[in-house]
TrEMBL record:
Keywords: Kinase, Membrane, Phosphoprotein, Transferase, Transmembrane, Transmembrane helix. It comes from Saliniramus fredricksonii. This is histidine kinase. The keyword Coiled coil does not apply. Its EC number is 2.7.13.3.
Length: 600
């Protein structure tokens, strides 16, 4: 009954392996996402850090170009204030002198030479008469008059009162150097007319710009309001006038009308910040400009985007290193987690396989115990079958002898029928006991199971032993499998019989019982526990034997008469049903074994 075919173990193990493989495939999906996250998350953080870093670099660049323009503004302002002071001193030195006296004055020439020498940005000082001729200068004495009618500072509209006029870059005469003039009309003898002209060497400003710029790709310039470039870096072949031709004066540079910086100067005349590509060298820069206070000049500084990108890349390298370290750490951590999870899955699969093997072994053991119990029951009821068969044969013989007596034949036939009925009932009970192994149950009626099992056991234990079965009224169903309960009960009764070789009473009781742990909780809790006790008055067990009672394969019976699995099976049934098996025994006084099962 309930046997397993050959190869079932291998098939079960193969199915367990397949289940473990499917579980392994399912478990890889989260780890694939974790592997991807280990790479994508640092990349995402790196992207955010790169964006934030670029935002910081650009903000810092805006601040730096603004500070650079402010510094250039202060530098130009101080230089112009110095030149204005020089012009004022020369005007004072000229006094009311006429131009003939001025041209012949060695003292005035010495003053011009001294002031020019002591002013680093000065590119020379000249005095221009009303007829637009240079009659005196800081370079030489006496000076052969030079025609200056082509200079813009000699135009009537150039000077208004005592305001300083700043001209475009020109080639100075007589020295031939590139300069731009700073001039003013005579104020102490306005009726005499003429102009005092000091010049700036653009190299002075360009050298300063080269010294303070952050990189060689950055640009700086000093520009007149009309677009004429007075000084700039990088220098080289600059764009000329709006038509692309050299300016009308040799050496004059001018921003073309389409130049973005020039357009910005016209739109926002005080100061501004723009991002543009230079038409001069094609380099993209972040430009800041500012109008020089009190003068028709602008200072312009452009920070190259290459400089900004270089600063950004330097920061990005640090962020990338951190992201790489984080990615490596996450990958290592993911690998360790996956290995640990794989080990856990393997261990879980092994445990599941072992649990299935154990469950299968327990099932086989329970089946074997039931078969053993059935065999012992069969052995016990064999005498009853023999008596039934003998009674039926005897009745048949008497029928044959008394065939002529109908009344006697009917009486004997009734006896034969009663014997057959008794045998049929015995067979039905044995079959029911055997078939329950194939129909496991979750709950059962303990009173009914006890009554049917006692009926079988009465014919099994022999005439020397008396079986007493008692059950309380209104016992509820209990949790567990009926077949396993009956097997456990048979094993307990047979053990009790074996403990009384000279015979004696065996008492089976089933009743509500209040455990000590639940006594304080009232009757409701007590009613949920059913105690089935098997008591004998046999030899009992000493402490050493009692300590090992219930261990699988432990028995005190001679070899061949016991397997040591009866109590182990009974305990396993009780524990699976959520209950317990308790054994109380006194050597020489008997044993009480109690199954405590929870009510369903």
């Amino acid at each position: 009954m309930n046997g397993k075919p050959e190869g079932a173990d291998g098939a079960g193990q193969e199915e367990t392996i397949r289940q473990a493989a499917r579980a392994d495939l399912r478990s890889r999906a989260p780890f694939a996402a974790l592997w991807a996250a280990s790479v994508l998350l640092p990349l995402l953080v790196l992207g955010l850090a790169a964006w934030w870093s670029w935002h910081g670099v650009e903000t810092a660049a805006r601040d730096r170009v603004q500070r650079m323009v402010d510094m250039m503004h202060e530098h130009v302002l101080r230089s112009l204030d110095t030149q204005e002071a020089i012009l004022e001193a020369i005007d004072y030195g000229m006094g009311q002198s006429d131009w003939e006296s001025i041209a012949e004055s060695r003292r005035l020439h010495a003053l011009l030479a001294t002031l020019n020498r002591r002013s680093p940005p000065s590119g020379g000082i000249v005095l221009v008469s009303p007829d637009r001729r240079i009659v005196a200068g800081s370079a030489e004495f006496p000076l052969t008059p030079i025609d200056a009618s082509d200079r813009d500072y000699t135009r009537p509209e150039a000077h208004h009162g005592d305001r300083v006029y700043i001209g475009e870059t020109v080639t100075a005469r007589p020295r031939g150097e590139r300069v731009f003039p700073v001039s003013r009309a005579r104020s102490r003898a306005p009726e005499a007319g003429g102009w005092i002209v000091a010049s700036f060497a653009p190299d002075y400003f360009e050298d300063f710009y080269r010294a303070v710029r952050e990189s060689d790709a950055d640009a700086a310039a000093l520009v007149r309001s009309g677009g004429a470039v007075l000084a700039r870096i990088p220098s080289g072949d600059a764009t000329r006038d709006a038509g692309g031709n050299p300016g009308e004066r040799d050496g004059s540079w001018r921003l073309p009308a389409e130049e973005v910086v020039g357009a910005a100067l016209a739109e926002n005349p005080d100061q501004g910040l723009i991002d543009a590509v230079s038409t001069h060298d094609g380099n993209r820069r972040l430009y800041a400009y500012r109008k020089v206070t009190g003068y028709p000049l602008y200072v312009v500084y452009g920070m190259s985007r290459q400089t900004m990108r270089a600063a950004w890349l330097r920061e990005l390298v640090a962020h990338a290193a951190i992201a790489w370290i984080a990615a490596m750490a996450l990958l290592v951590l993911t690998a360790r987690i996956q290995r640990a999870a794989r080990r856990e899955r393997v261990a879980l699969a092994d445990a599941r396989f072992e649990a299935e093997r154990r469950a299968e072994a327990e099932s086989r053991l329970a089946h074997a115990q039931r078969v053993d119990a059935l065999g012992r029951i069969v052995g016990g009821v064999a005498h009853d079958f023999k008596n039934i068969v003998q009674a039926m044969r005897g009745g048949a013989s008497r029928v044959a002898k008394r065939a002529d007596d109908p009344d006697e034949v009917r009486r004997i036939a009734g006896m034969i029928d009663a014997s057959a009925e008794r045998g049929a009932r015995l067979i039905e009970r044995m079959l029911a006991f055997a078939r329950r192994d194939q129909m496991p149950t979750a709950r059962f009626d303990v009173a009914a199971a006890l009554a049917e099992t006692c009926d079988l056991l009465e014919r099994t234990i022999g005439p020397a032993h008396r079986l007493i079965c008692e059950s309380g009224a209104d016992l509820p169903q209990v949790t567990g499998d009926r077949a396993e309960f009956e097997t456990a009960l048979v094993n307990l009764v047979l053990n009790a019989r074996d403990a009384m070789p000279d015979g004696g009473p065996i008492r089976i009781t089933a009743q509500h019982e209040t455990p000590e742990a639940a006594a304080a909780e009232g009757a409701d809790t007590a009613a949920r526990i059913i105690a089935i006790a098997v008591t004998d008055a046999g030899t009992g067990m000493d402490e050493a034997t009692l300590a090992r009672a219930g261990e699988p394969f432990f028995t005190t019976k001679p070899v061949g008469e016991g397997t040591g699995l009866g109590l182990a099976t009974a305990r396993a049934f009780a524990e699976h049903a959520g209950g317990t098996l308790e054994i109380a025994s006194v050597a020489g006084a008997g044993t009480r074994m109690t199954l405590r099962l929870p009510a369903a």
